[in-house]
Structures are given as structure tokens and as C-alpha cells.
Sequence to fold (179 residues):
Amino acid sequence: MALILFNKPFNVLCQFTDRSVPPRPTLAGFGLPPQVYAAGRLDHDSEGLLLLTDDGGLAHRLTDPRHKADKTYWVQVEGEPTDDQLDQLRRGVVLNDGPSLPASAVSIPTPALWPRDPPVRFRKSVPDAWLAVTLREGRNRQVRRMTAAVGLPTLRLVRAAIGPYRLDDLQPGQWRQVD
Fold:
């Protein structure tokens, strides 16, 4: 049984093949062990921690919302969050597919991250800020939709942790096996 912590780079798909033309970068280009697959997903335009395993039972425990594995994201947003906006995220917001569960949401200093390629657009007239958002559900593009719903569009999204597993010092494209 293998559990792999992988730092998924920006614009890489969470699968090993891509049938689009031209093909997009996939997990196949990172020398991962054979027979592992992603336990959960991370959008192609998001970065950070992705867990891979060759154990279906473990994958289920890691991804099933009933097991309540918290997922923490560092989110660069456009604008400066107000207490009211953070409170809305903490209470849960109404999305087009129903209300979200409450989330933990706090302002954080800019995390020490690798440069993104391409870089996030910078506008002198529009401030940005970083949040740490922790969820227990994993709906499609949920963090982006939640921050947009409170008036804070996401510029960059990095998953920092899933349950007890942390990104730590893994650089984009790097992985390590854990017990």
C-alpha cells in the first residue's frame, strides 16, 4: 500500500492521460510510482497537495465527506477582506448548487510560496490579500465560488493540507511516499 504526497503544479491535470488536442500536462510526467491514482481532485488551475494511493479503501476514507478530512487552502483574493466577508464564509454561503457548510476562514500573511508560471496578474489599483480557508466538503470549484460569492474573487489557490497531511517543503512537481 502506498500513500504519496504530491505538490501538483499549476495547469496540470489530476489524471494520467489527456485526450485533448494538444494534450495538456498530466500526472504521468512526474515519475510517480505505477498503479497509484489520485484520491480526490484538484482543479487544473489550482496548485498544491494531492494525495495518491494504490489502495481503494484508503482513497475512500481520504475523500468521503463522512470521514470529515479537513482540507486547508491558501487563497489569494482580489480585495481586502472585511470582517463581514470572513463571517459569511464562516457561516457558509449560498452557491448555485445549494448552501455550503460553514468553513474556517482567516486572513493570513502572504505565505512563502514558489513563483507561479504564469504569474498572477498584478494591478496597482486593486489590492489583494491571502486567506486560509478550511473545508470539510469538496464540491466542484467550491473555494473559488465561495470567495466570489462574498465579493473576493480568487486569484491563486494552493491546497496546503488534507487532514493530517501537509504540503510542507514539497516544491511543485515533487512527491514523497509516507507510511
